Hints:
Elements: H1 13-18, H2 26-35, E1 40-43, E2 46-48, E3 54-57, E4 61-64, H3 67-74
Antiparallel strand pairs: 1-4, 2-3
Amino acid sequence: VRAAAGEDLSITLRALFATSNGAVTLGEALTHAIDLGARRALLEVRALDADGGVRAASPWVELRWPPDLLEAVFGR
């Protein structure tokens, strides 16, 4: 999603995942965060049973990466 020049546009990963079944791998969540231009992410890691029920969940885990990392990896 691109905004017009000077326009502030944001979406949470939670809102993005709500349009799907809500289940993604940790790598997919990080990829989406980076694709959206995020410099940090708050993630909850869950272990699910065979029926999709939550067996265990972590507290929120905050991940941060410096702006120069995105530039070095993606050229932005």
